[in-house]
Amino acid sequence: MRHLTLTLVVVIVVLFTKDANSSAAIILEVFDENVFVPKNGFREQGLRLHNHYRSLNKVSPLKLDHELNKLAHAHAEKLASWNNLTASETGFDENLWSHRGELLPLAKDLEYAIRCWYTGSTTPGRVQASVDHFVLRSDSVTSVGFGVGTSEHNGEGYSVVVALYQ
Ligand SMILES: *[C@@H]1O[C@H](CO)[C@@H](O)[C@H](O)[C@H]1NC(C)=O
């Protein structure tokens, strides 16, 4: 009987722990999407592409920075609602990109933005950009933060990508 009780307690504790873990995981996932925690989302994909271009230019890779992600996100959302492309007043080096038309997945916006900054590509059309060519090829920056903001104006999608560097 004692043995059985002990076993039951152990089983319950295990169940409890498992449950607590999985709800923590769910909360974390939601948190990751809404806030700016770098996991395996569009920012990591963007970072890989950005560092690929940097390696072609023989400059050191960048890492993602939480604070820069936050600032870039806030500025991208602001520009999306402002419906224009204006430099931020953060004091950081930055690159901007915007697109009018059908809204795309965030990772696509970021991919097109980075390709545009490095190659001048205007895919997928109706693209506007503001590029700091020096910072793209500079070893003096070590971190980057990405933000994508989206909105709609006159029934048309408007997305803005902001990259801030330090
Ligand atoms: C962008 O829009 C904001 C808000 O309307 C305005 O304050 C800002 O001057 C605009 N920037 C440009 C470059 O037009």
TrEMBL record:
Signal sequence region: 1-24
Domain SCP, first and last residues per copy: 47-160
Superkingdom classification of source: Eukaryota
Keyword vocabulary terms for this entry: Signal
InterPro entries with a match to the protein in the record: CAP_dom, CAP_sf
Keyword Signal in record: yes
Pfam family, one: CAP
The name this protein goes by in its record: Golgi-associated plant pathogenesis-related protein 1
Native species: Folsomia candida (Springtail)
